[in-house]
């Protein structure tokens, strides 16, 4: 990567090829939205992969359909399908992989339009997944097709994938593909994930996450004589108090060098996802009276998001330290802690080739400097980093993150066009090197 994108004579033709494809981009986005790929349970993955397979083969890609057999949720009723397409250039060079997830989250209440209708209203396409991330997927396909139409004599290769299950952790999607070598640095050199981070931002990575269940124990007794038992909920109250007194202030004081947006996520954070102790909650409509028991168990689930400067071990040790402190000082206190899930933080260097290239293309297309950001929540970059061992990866795509998972989700057509332009120019910069003497990777 040795030249600015504006150095290429291919750009006027590329702009024309993109402009010609505006209606195609709209239709493609609508088609993708109209295949409801709800996760859970993981519906219509095969249908959307077949659609992408047809589309990309027509554009000259070789395609593979890969079912992530045996991954969480995979069954004959809900198979975890992925599609990976590759188009070789005319000579050796780098491979640029554009990867998008095909699944969408639950619709939820509050919609004023059909969530799977793909309505085009005032330059916006509406539907579940419009911004997260079928709009980004469509923009990446149009970008690649416009590039191929104008620059057929390119070096290296382009890959486009549609992957399953990002919304439930990506184990049946990018993680599965990474385990099978699809993101090894020998095969792929640059990855762009068109998540909806905004058309003027390059997202370098995301925080880590550690989920755990903590249980406190007690002793069951009659509710009229709680002194004969030991209330596990009161013990949990002591845990929550220790979190308030020590953990939350300590986390809030910790600041990361990562450019996480929004600002509040630049510290360590923790959510308490759930709490339950004692008898099961009464079913709706039940008229039965509760029985009187001292609870012998109370459980919470915590969702601790951590910074690139922290480690899983330090996160775990900090919480275990508080619990052990209670064990040493509070009569009859005992606990169990069980890890439920973990994802590493991931951060690409802003000088990495793909980050610099996309930022330069943003400046070209939008006429202003790109903003480098990081995401508060994780996305598929973690698998590309940890399993694939590939560091040269960013998220870049159209749409506003705030709209993801909301009612009346939409993506702007102009935003998709601008993002497609940025992606296409990035392909020019990475696959039409003006200096063929670059050192190999
Ligand atoms: Zn997403």
From TrEMBL:
Keywords: Cobalt, Hydrolase, Metal-binding, Zinc. Signal peptide: none annotated. Its cofactor is Zn(2+); Co(2+). Gene3D superfamilies: 3.30.70.360, Zn peptidases. InterPro entries: ArgE/DapE, Bact_exopeptidase_dim_dom, Peptidase_M20, Peptidase_M20_dimer, Peptidase_M20A. It comes from the Bacteria. It holds the Pfam family Peptidase_M20. The keyword DNA-binding does not apply. Belongs to the peptidase M20A family. This is Succinyl-diaminopimelate desuccinylase. It comes from Roseisalinus antarcticus. The lineage of its organism: Bacteria, Pseudomonadati, Pseudomonadota, Alphaproteobacteria, Rhodobacterales. The gene is dapE_2.
